[in-house]
Amino acid sequence: MLPMTDATAARRAPHDRRRGLMLVLSSPSGAGKTTLSRRLLSQDDDITLSVSVTTRPMRPGEVDGVDYHFIDRPSFDRMVAEEALLEHATVFENSYGTPRAAVEATLADGRDVLFDIDWQGTQQLADRARDDLVTVFILPPSIAELERRLTTRAQDSAEVVAKRMAKAADEMSHYAEYDYVLVNEDVDRTLADLEAILRAERLRRRRRLGLSGFVNAMREGAGR
Ligand SMILES: Nc1nc2c(ncn2[C@@H]2O[C@H](COP(=O)(O)OP(=O)(O)O)[C@@H](O)[C@H]2O)c(=O)[nH]1
Ligand SMILES: Nc1ncnc2c1ncn2[C@@H]1O[C@H](COP(=O)(O)OP(=O)(O)O)[C@@H](O)[C@H]1O
């Protein structure tokens, strides 16, 4: 178990001190993970995005170091060899991975980490840290709407969109491996559900490091 740093411990009331959690969002491409992640991150200071490394080419509008760390194949292979990745997988012929150091530093600070990763990466994280993990699968409201979203995002060629659609059925078959499943019809509604999940998971007793000291102090006070 990772300890919290003094900075975070001092910021929280004793009963609010807790371990950071790892919130995973997965979905078929185009269902809305990126949109939901950006909105959640912009309104909640206690959660930060795990920025993955990838060998995929950058899309228009993406920023290196913000959306992904865009790296070449030798650099990716080196990170795997050095065990610098917490998990990694091949998706659509490109490699993706989660840098370990940033995640460990954020959790040690008692803050939460958001992951936009696929089912393969989720399984690897579950093998390593099931107790710290909260997993959410996002489904589109229909296949027609998924295709519409992939097409109107206008960032991929028709060929790439076709490949992503072909993979969607496969990806969706993994929904039952997740703790929560959200159908992303209306984005405001889905975001509200995601916030509710995060809020409740933060309140879980096993994550609340300060609780026993808090209760013990009250019990001592009551017995006086
Ligand atoms: N296992 C794993 N999957 C990742 C990682 N980063 C991104 N992915 C997944 O790779 C897939 C393709 O991502 P991307 O090329 O950005 O397209 P997107 O589906 O439109 O977000 C998505 O399912 C992501 O969740 C990672 O670090 N590890
Ligand atoms: N609930 C929604 N309703 C309509 N359009 C959406 C919704 N959620 C996301 N979108 C749009 O669908 C496209 C794909 O969303 P994105 O967040 O990039 O998906 P993913 O990261 O899962 O591939 C984007 O153009 C986005 O603006």
TrEMBL record:
GO terms for cellular component: cytosol. PROSITE patterns: GUANYLATE_KINASE_1, GUANYLATE_KINASE_2. SMART domains: GuKc. It comes from the Bacteria. Pfam families: Guanylate_kin (PF00625). It catalyses: GMP + ATP = GDP + ADP. ATP binds at S27, P28, S29, G30, A31, G32, K33, T34. Residues 1-20 are annotated as: Disordered. Its EC number is 2.7.4.8. The keyword Acetylation does not apply. InterPro entries: GK/Ca_channel_bsu (IPR008145), Guanylate_kin-like_dom (IPR008144), Guanylate_kinase (IPR017665), Guanylate_kinase_CS (IPR020590), P-loop_NTPase (IPR027417). Keywords: ATP-binding, Cytoplasm, Kinase, Nucleotide-binding, Transferase. It is found in: Cytoplasm. One of its GO terms (molecular function) is ATP binding. Residues 20-199 form the Guanylate kinase-like domain. PANTHER family: GUANYLATE KINASE, GUANYLATE KINASE-RELATED. Belongs to the guanylate kinase family. Essential for recycling GMP and indirectly, cGMP. This is Guanylate kinase. It comes from Tistrella mobilis (strain KA081020-065). The lineage of its organism: Bacteria, Pseudomonadati, Pseudomonadota, Alphaproteobacteria, Geminicoccales.
